[in-house]
Batch of 2 targets.
Target 1
Amino acid sequence: MSTIRSSLFEPLAVEVHIRQEKASSLRRTGDKLDKLIAELVQVESELRTLSGPSRAARVQLYGQMRADAEYQRWCLVVQREAMGLWNHAEVELMYPIPPAVKP
């Protein structure tokens, strides 16, 4: 025998679970992005005091980290769009990726 929902507008348990998983996925991606941005800021500040080969190595690391951050932000935008969220201006504001650094 099947269970009748108390309201036609009340979500099923599986729908609630799916929404929770979507929110968790957004949070995890946002957390990764926050961490990458914090590391980028740290490396960027270190670059001000470095020169020569050590600076070149850190600039290369910075570029790789920045590319990772841009990818994570893109992943966040894709996840938001999959959830029906189309305005991403707040993503740009909440997760500002530092500018590229020249060698």
Note: The chain has a mean pLDDT of 90.
Target 2
Amino acid sequence: MLNPIAFAIGPVKVHWYGIILGTAALVGLLLAIREGKRFRIQPDFFMDLLLIGVPSAIICARIYYVAFQWKDYKDNLAEVFMIWHGGIAIYGALIGAIAAGFFYTRSKGYSFWRILDICAPGLIVGQMIGRWGNYMNQEAHGGPVEESFLRHTLHLPNFIVNQMNIEGVFYHPTFFYESFWNFVGLLLLFWLRRRPFLRAGELFFSYLIWYSVGRFFIEALRTDSLDFIGPTWLASLMNALWSPMTLLFEQGTLTYGGNVRISQLLAVLLVIGAVITIIVRRKKGYATVRYSDPIVSSKAVTSGSENNDAEELSTKGAEYDSNRTV
């Protein structure tokens, strides 16, 4: 097992998990800044967006996890705030980041959909890199597998296979499956955003669809999924949608006694919602703006208009004084 602690400064231990998450956020920021320059958006806008979005993401990721595991925290409320003990959820982080981004973007006068589009590659690359924090901690893995499956069927490198050996048992490196899926998704988003048919908001919806499809299939391999007891028909539907994967893998066990994985259900709902939204926006004529169209802040336009009005009034006033003098 690799040491999850990168280094220590006195009593303070710096974990690889935190370094990797910080790197993920930085790379995502740089991608957003670079694309934002094409639309003449200042880098400071995205830096401030990150400073607001990251704390919101962490808080909501914790709230999301605690809400679905409330039975583990209701008798020990102090544990709710001990985030270093583990227990955050990516979907909760996504909700928090998007909510914070909505209010900040609107306060700056930008279209929320346009900014989401610019940030979409940064979101998926952040998730792609961030999953390697799970690798360092030997967490968020799948069920047991044979070592030969990892080495000779999947042909994974030694450093991954060895780290998936936990107390003598090898496990599915689901962190790697999701990271690789997100890498392919990143390339897809890069290709899509240069296509002339793409409308505002659709790059973000494409990100949601791609990520959610991968998360649905990978989630079933994990043994730490948040779950709940749902109706039998819903559990059967989830299993039926996942059934093509049984040719290659077996599902991981459900740890918390439920029969429906929350992340799987949410992934299905996000895919359906994103597809319907794209279709409705196009049918109703709401998606008239293309991705490649200029992005202008409404507040910048207002400010410019006010300046023009002031200049016009000043000119007319000067002409009036000139006439009076004559």
Note: DSSP finds eleven helices and seven strands in the chain.
